[in-house]
Design goal:
The protein is built from 18 helices and 13 strands. It has helices at residues 2-24, 33-41, 47-65, 75-88, 135-142, 190-197, 214-219, 254-264, 273-277, 315-329, 343-346, 349-352, 354-371, 381-390, 403-409, 416-439, 453-457, 488-502; strands at 68-71, 103-107, 146-151, 168-169, 173-174, 203-208, 223-226, 246-251, 299-303, 333-338, 444-448, 463-470, 476-482. Strands 1-3-2-6-8-7-12-13-11-9-10 form an 11-stranded mixed β-sheet, with helices on both faces. A hairpin with a 3-residue loop joins strand 4 and strand 5. The protein is globular.
Length: 521
């Protein structure tokens, strides 16, 4: 008996020691900006170790997930510099900014004046050099972020071909949803969302013209934040539509997305849209709106039709109704069963004119962008098409043609159809979404899934998607919060409070292997 008692005491003592050791180790899995900075401050982690971990994750998982096109060969050097500056500041990285030492993955259309390519997923732009960093990259570098690499995307924002699946590009192949192998990862910022979801990077940047942040966020169980058009500069980013393009964060939490947003917003003389949107940026930034009681007093408009049609009878539909109870129980007023005027036309890009206008804008703005590159094999959309035709094996033309690019090349900004499309979409937005918001005095529109992204895209409105659950097959779905221009503060309060009340995100089980920092030196 005595020996058994002694053995029990020994085992108990060892369990305490093990717990103490485990508590002192940093957990990379699902790490947030806050937990990373806490580990920095407690000398339990360095930026170099963090970069090592993410590089290892990319090298291990990317062959199957196909979400990262290339890693930055200077990432460790940037991490070492961040560590040096933190040590000089007394070890508290937050005094240097919330993104100091934090690795960030960029969509492959966001320009970097370094050793990385900026190719929109196409071989046509390999080796081409941009004149300078994109404005958002300048802001990230100023904030001390580590540029980890470039994420895959739907080639040329899915304009490459009307037949290719979302998340496919010639350089990377087709991205894989980390939750359901047969599930759509969605595009065009697919790689940014997949990498964050599978813990291959802390945070990422994507771009959206119509659904390209919201849909990947929704389908990969991460937070996607598409700001009001002009809140973030598009300068230095391969363009699609100056009317609808927006740069925004894709992260695992609302808090992380807000920290990234704070770092990248601001006026940029190279993008005139930022002049108008700068008035929306609050003193003190957006982190002040991360309030757990943010639902209190909010007036939320629920639009079911047609967004719930594809979810009828599913666990997602029942979960949505449960989430409405969460809104109400946390102090929000829920205005249910609202409808958007002309919603059928809005969601049909041929009827609304969106497709015609986007193709024309793409040709016009891309030609301008390509003309500003150096060492580029292509200087116009016509030359991109010719490159693809002359390199069928390289561009994998046997898989998907380039009918989208050819259709864009045939457009003209002065065509009557294109001019009329811009007027029609403005009218549809004013008589649809804006009317809904104003007449019902709403703080946010709430919908299930990602299809409402088009409603918000054509008018340049902000949107934020938060993980809301998983269907019977394990496929993620989110709730999308949309608001009028400049309503980011209300959306953050609403989305953050919902996230904190529900905490629905779960990491993909197939990619959840955990490691601790002593493995990385």
């Amino acid at each position: 008996m005595a020996s058994l008692f002694s053995l029990s005491l020994l085992l108990l003592f060892l369990s305490f020691v093990t717990a103490a050791i485990d508590d002192s180790q940093f957990t990379f899995h699902e790490a947030t900006i806050e937990t990373i900075h806490l580990a920095f401050a407690q000398n339990r982690l360095t930026s170099r170790q963090l970069v090592h971990f993410y590089v290892d994750r990319v090298q291990t998982l990317n062959p199957s997930l196909r979400c990262v096109l290339e890693l930055n060969p200077d990432a460790l050097h940037q991490a070492d510099e961040a560590d040096r500056l933190r040590a000089a500041a007394g070890g508290d990285g937050t005094t240097l900014g919330h993104l100091h030492g934090i690795p960030v993955l960029l969509k492959d259309s966001i320009g970097t004046d370094d050793k990385l390519n900026t190719s929109a997923g196409s071989y046509a732009l390999l080796g081409a050099r941009v004149a300078r960093d994109a404005f958002v990259v300048e802001r990230l570098r100023s904030a001390g972020a580590v540029i980890l690499g470039k994420a895959s995307m739907s080639e040329w924002y899915s304009v490459r071909s009307f037949e290719m699946p979302s998340g496919w590009c010639a350089r990377g192949g087709e991205g894989l949803n980390p939750y359901v192998k047969s599930g759509d990862p969605c595009g065009s910022s697919s790689g940014s969302a997949i990498a964050v979801a599978a813990n291959m990077v802390a945070v990422s940047l994507g771009t959206e013209t119509d659904g390209s942040i919201i849909c990947p966020g929704d389908h990969n169980s991460v937070v996607g934040f598409k700001p009001t058009v002009g809140l973030t500069s598009r300068a230095g980013v391969i363009p699609l539509s100056p009317r609808q393009d927006s740069i925004g964060p894709i992260c695992r939490s609302v808090s992380d997305a807000v920290h990234v947003l704070d770092a990248i917003v601001g006026f940029d003389p190279r993008d005139e849209a930022t002049g108008e949107a700068a008035k929306f940026i609050p003193m003190g930034g957006y982190k002040q709106f991360l309030r757990e009681d943010g639902l209190k007093g909010k007036r939320l408009g629920i639009v079911r039709k047609p967004f719930l049609d594809s979810f009828k009878g599913s666990t997602a539909a029942s979960a949505f109704d449960q989430h409405l109870v969460t809104f109400w129980s946390n102090g929000a007023t829920v205005v249910d069963n609202l409808e958007i005027e002309n919603i059928g036309i809005i969601l049909n890009p041929a009827q609304s004119g969106e497709m015609a206008l986007l193709l024309a804008e793409f040709k016009h703005t891309l030609n301008e962008y390509l003309g500003g590159l150096s060492n580029s094999r292509v200087k116009s959309l016509a030359e991109v098409i010719a490159f693809n035709s002359n390199n069928p094996d390289l561009e994998k033309m046997e898989e998907y043609n380039q009918d989208g690019l050819i259709a864009a090349e045939m457009t003209n900004m002065l065509d009557e159809e294109v001019v009329e499309a811009e007027r029609r979409m403005k009218q549809l937005s004013e008589e649809g979404f804006e009317k809904l918001m104003k007449e019902n005095e709403l703080d946010a529109m709430v919908t299930l899934g990602a299809d409402a992204a088009t409603v918000l895209a054509i008018g340049g409105y902000p949107a934020l998607t938060v993980p809301a659950g998983y269907d019977d097959n394990g496929m993620p779905f989110g709730i999308c919060f949309g608001g009028l221009k400049g309503s980011e503060a209300k959306l953050i309060e609403t989305a953050y409070a919902f996230e904190q009340a529900t905490r629905m995100r779960k990491p993909p089980l197939s990619y959840s292997t955990e490691f601790h920092y002593p493995h990385y030196q």
